[in-house]
Amino acid sequence: MSSAWYRAFRRYDVTVPVWAIHRHIGMGGDQLVGAVAGDDVERGHGDDIRAAWLEQADGMLDEISALPGAHALLEAVREAGFGLVMASSGKPHHVARYAELIEAGELPEAWVSSGDVEQTKPAPDLLQVAMDRVGADAAVVVGDSVWDCRAAARVGLPSVAVRTGGFSNDELREAGATSVYASVEELTDDVTALKPQEPTS
User: Considering the entire predicted model, what is its pTM?
Assistant: First the structure.
């Protein structure tokens, strides 16, 4: 969705390098505008840019494809005896589309999206709601961005990262990841290593 953000910014004469936008994907739109373009742009055009992004992103939904191995990972998580809650900073109807693409079906016990919280990642709200929704007192967060790892750290949870988000091993570990996998398939092969823990704060 980096190109959708780029087009949304350009509509308001704001030019942000696509690489900078890409490195913030995974962060919710409520925080992304200020993070990549500055507080002045957020104050002056934040809501308008988010509305323009939504228009652009909606038009690109049919172009999105599932990450190879995503469905198999969900199956492996459940087969290993773990509960599964999907938590995304995305819009609810986008998340519904992603669920279709990975054929999630009934594998997740619950879904949480930006529509369920006031602040998205790297704020910990999504993760806390996800745990509350299924009555969990222990969890491990799996993600592919530093924003996932930082959100987990803020709620006192361990995180496991996959490098599909374009971040390096060092960046993910510095953000709090306890383990980093090169691919979804690699994590799937080692899924029993996931050990939910209770929040430390």
Answer: 0.88
Q: Give the Cα separation of 41 and 32 in Å (integer).
A: 11
Rounded Cα distance between 118 and 158, Å, is 23
Report yes or no: 77 and 40 within 8 Å, Cβ to Cβ. Answer: no
Are 135 and 180 in contact by the 8 Å Cβ rule? The answer is no
Q: Tens-digit pLDDT profile for the chain (201 aa)?
A: 799 999 999 999 999 999 999 999 989 899 999 999 999 999 999 999 999 999 999 999 999 999 999 999 999 999 999 999 999 988 999 999 999 999 999 999 999 999 999 999 999 999 999 999 999 988 999 999 999 999 999 999 999 999 999 999 999 999 999 999 999 999 999 998 787 666 765
Task: Return d(Cα 145, Cα 164) in angstroms, integer.
Answer: 8
Q: By C-alpha distance, which of 159, 149, 140, 164 is closest to 66?
A: 164
CA 110-103-196 angle, 5° bins: 40
Element (H, E) at 11: helix 2-11
Q: What's the one-letter identity of residue 107?
A: L
